[in-house]
Give the backbone structure.
Amino acid sequence: MMRSKLMNLVPRAVATTSRQMSTATKLTTVQVDDKTGIATLTMNRPPVNGLNLELLRDIHQSIEEIEGNKSRGLILTSSNPTIFSAGLDIFEMYKPDKERIRAFWTALQDVWLALYGSSVPTAAAINGHSPAGGCLLATSCEYRVMLPKYTIGLNETKLGIVAPKWFMSTFESVLPRRLAERALNQGRMFTTEEALAVGLVDEVANSKEEAIAKCAQFIGTFAKVNPLARALTKQQLRAEELKQLEDERVQDLEKFIFFVNQPAVQKGLGIYLESLKKKATK
Ligand SMILES: CCCCCCCCCCC/C=C/C(=O)SCCNC(=O)CCNC(=O)[C@H](O)C(C)(C)COP(=O)(O)OP(=O)(O)OC[C@H]1O[C@@H](n2cnc3c(N)ncnc32)[C@H](O)[C@@H]1OP(=O)(O)O
């Protein structure tokens, strides 16, 4: 998979305007800045960018599109002014449809493999809350810029669920092992300020525009680096985690299906959904 992506890494001429590359799907848009050649992938699924089957498929398609069109980099962000992504759409896991839940988890695996394994430089402009699956997306990128007063983290244990190994290894690729272990066990959500202090995010910006500009600046640091050498270096550094999921995706899917169908897990998800609804009516 990575080898064919590498074939796309040839220099290209740049123009001066920005163009909408993809509106084929409604849940993501891809805008390429023709001056920098950097693509911004925006998630757009109100109200909270909950990662359901359709959004995951659109994100995957957009990443493939960006890989294919020789963009110089990928910036992931959200159209919601206060939420990057609320993580997995819990309705996909609560009283699930047998076929759909398999497609859903497979789509999540596809997104992670494509984003974590992307041959282009990746950055997340985290313009809002980013729990669980939202944090997975952000930490799959190489660089993170976050707006103040939001939260980010893997809170799965607080929901009575367990983050799969590849969520954990992505988290651990950003945070020191001891800190990652403690945060995962606690289901800890970090404020922007805390996330910056521990290195979960790289910079703080005061607006989405500034966050995107900082992400573009990061991607710009590779301008004078040979793209093939950079991509091969990234590939080698990330190969172990990618191979592990590629080799075990069927078992990973079966584990997820088994786990999510446990009565205790279903009960916990139901209670959690109720608590989210109650919060909305307060
Ligand atoms: C041995 C190993 C086995 C491994 C097996 C694997 C096991 C499974 C692993 C699964 C990993 C899971 C990953 C996840 O991502 S789970 C999702 C976690 N997400 C959250 O906990 C976030 C919950 N949401 C919030 O905290 C807030 O909503 C948020 C801060 C994001 C926004 O707050 P705000 O006040 O702006 O908005 P509301 O809370 O009022 O929400 C608006 C409406 O959206 C609904 N909502 C919110 N989040 C979700 C969600 N994740 N899924 C579905 N729906 C969600 C919320 O209920 C409101 O709905 P209503 O308007 O109808 O009330």
